[in-house]
Design a protein that fits this description.
104 residues, 434 Repressor (Amino-terminal Domain), globular
Length: 104
């Protein structure tokens, strides 16, 4: 991904968001919501390239500011109360369906 400060900082932000939204031990819950095995998510946090659709689903599930996720600047994770109001911490059992639409 062009423009990232560096891969390590990016994966640190992924981990930070996962911990804030799903908790320290929330890898399994997040992985289930994304439809991937927990070990796969652990690999993403370790620096394995994250597929674009998984990244988009992660953004939808967590409500993270995309600019902050990519660059580490301004914005960031929604506060816990905002996340809870959106229902993210309240038993999300699967990732939202991501649909692409064509312009025009």
């Amino acid at each position: 991904m062009a423009g990232l400060t560096d891969r390590r900082a990016f994966t640190d932000r992924l981990r930070q968001i996962r911990r804030e939204v799903y908790g320290e031990e929330g890898i399994t819950q997040l992985a289930q919501a994304l439809g991937v095995p927990p070990r796969t998510w652990e690999n993403y946090e370790a620096g394995v390239t994250l597929p674009d659709l998984i990244l988009l689903e992660f953004v939808c599930l967590t409500g993270v500011d995309v600019h902050w996720l990519a660059k580490g600047e301004e914005g960031g994770v929604l506060g816990a109360s905002q996340v809870s109001r959106r229902g993210i911490n309240e038993g999300a059992s699967h990732a939202p369906e991501v649909k692409a639409t064509r312009p025009g």
